[in-house]
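Residues determine shape. Next comes a sample protein:
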Amino acid sequence: MRHLLRSRRAGVRKPFPRCGTYYVYILRCKDGTYYTGFTNNLENRVKLHNSGRGAKYVRGKTPAALVYYTTYRYYKLAILRERAIKKLSRQQKTALITEFEMENPARQSGKKGETTMKKIASQKVMNESLNEAIAYQKQSVVSQEIVKKKTGTVTLFAFDKGQGLSEHTAPFDALVYLIDGKATITISGKPFQVKKGDYIVMPAGKPHALKATAKFKMMLVMIKS
């Protein structure tokens, strides 16, 4: 069966299959605001937005960067997810984007209160203090990937005080080692106070959250196989 959607342009109805591959995504516009949408062709949709032929909200606010996306098989589920994200506060959307960056450490952003990702070439030999390898930024979460393999990743993070990640789950085990400061890490509803020099393992599939009670730096090791 095919579902009829009204096009956002010219009010024309176009056939839209109920089952396929659908993307729910977030763009960060030039002015720092977020736009949430859904599509069945993510690459083309982002190009349309940046060409001025996409959503009216994005026009005049380009370039807009893709900072988050997730996929669904069914159109209806994508629509429900899009609506749910649109109801989130800016802080909640930022946390969602940060979680996406942690699980897909190859994207970049750099606005206030958001994740900043820096990637180091895998051929480069690293020999420096972990604490000096990454710096804090005011009201931001900064991340720096130092190892990326099919079997896992190693990423450094610097959280300013008050920043954090809302509760979520990951498909892989993750080890967190605190390089500096202190944090509250909650796993399956149980809070753990972690300080410099401590480590904690967050099991796959277990809901967890992080909160910077004071600014802190950590190394995240994710094992994918």
In short: The chain has two domains: 1-87, 109-225. Residues 90-103 form the longest helix (14 residues).
